[in-house]
């Protein structure tokens, strides 16, 4: 590859790969986590499974939490989002969201579903200690929680009577938008066209 082509390819790749992330972070972002006992720390043999889908809307400062779960050994006691671990996708850390549990989360069951949207500028959306540790306001707490989620340092944890520390959990990860894949594909296709034209 000639210097000009290599430079252009590098520039295009940077735009294609970097732009979607900054766009996503400025708008509505969906995170997901597959929940299992194997992802607890320490792991447990629960056959329970579930999925948490969390959507941050940074325009209107809301967080929608949707959860489906089944097959628990114990019955549900509380559920939260924890943040922010020292390293991505590992470790334990304190609760960030409402305590003792998400309001209205199904209790005393082995399977269920949940779908509630929270006002993240309302202090009741957080554990008070999380707010105090992160600037003292709901806005600063939302910034800290959002940053932790983007960094892979937050997890959804579902606690039960058999596993009070958590029966199933999973770290939240960004769900790429469909447009991200299309943009990346178009950018890579463009790189191929430029390269062929330069060789010609």
Report on the architecture of this protein.
Helix 1 runs antiparallel to helix 4 (178-199). The chain starts with a helix and ends with a helix. A five-stranded antiparallel sheet has the order 5-3-2-1-8. Residues 2-25 and 180-186 have low confidence and may be disordered. The chain contains four helices and eight strands; from the N terminus they run H-E-E-E-E-E-H-H-E-E-E-H. 32% of the residues lie in helices and 28% in strands.
Strand content: 25-35%
Assign the structural class, choosing from mainly alpha, mainly beta, alpha/beta, alpha+beta, or little secondary structure: alpha+beta
Helix content estimate: 25-40%
- Element order, helices and strands? HEEEEEHHEEEH
Give the rounded overall mean pLDDT.
85
Q: Can you tell me the overall shape?
A: globular
**Count of DSSP H/I helices:** 4
- Tell me the Rg in angstroms: 20 Å
Largest sheet: 5 strands, antiparallel
- Regions with little confidence, pLDDT below 50 for 5+ residues: 2-25, 180-186
Tell me the strand order in the biggest sheet: 5-3-2-1-8
End-to-end gap: 12 Å
- Tell me which oligomeric state these chains represent: single chain
Number of strands: 8
């Amino acid at each position: 590859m000639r210097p000009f082509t290599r430079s252009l390819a590098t520039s295009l790749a940077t735009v294609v790969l970097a732009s979607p992330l900054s766009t996503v972070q400025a708008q509505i972002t969906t995170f997901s986590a597959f929940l299992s006992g194997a992802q607890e720390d320490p792991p447990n043999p629960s056959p329970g499974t579930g999925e948490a889908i969390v959507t941050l809307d940074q325009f209107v400062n809301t967080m929608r939490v949707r959860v489906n779960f089944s097959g628990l050994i114990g019955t549900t006691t509380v559920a939260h989002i924890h943040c922010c671990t020292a390293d991505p996708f590992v470790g334990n850390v304190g609760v960030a969201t409402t305590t003792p549990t998400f309001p209205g989360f199904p209790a005393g069951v082995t399977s269920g579903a949940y779908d509630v949207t929270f006002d993240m500028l309302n202090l009741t959306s957080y554990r008070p200690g999380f707010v105090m540790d992160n600037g003292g306001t709901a806005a600063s707490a939302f910034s800290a929680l959002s940053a932790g989620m983007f960094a892979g340092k937050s997890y959804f944890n579902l606690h039960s009577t058999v596993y009070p520390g958590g029966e199933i959990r999973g770290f939240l990860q960004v769900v790429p938008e469909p447009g991200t894949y299309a943009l990346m594909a178009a950018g890579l296709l463009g790189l191929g066209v430029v390269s062929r034209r330069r060789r010609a």
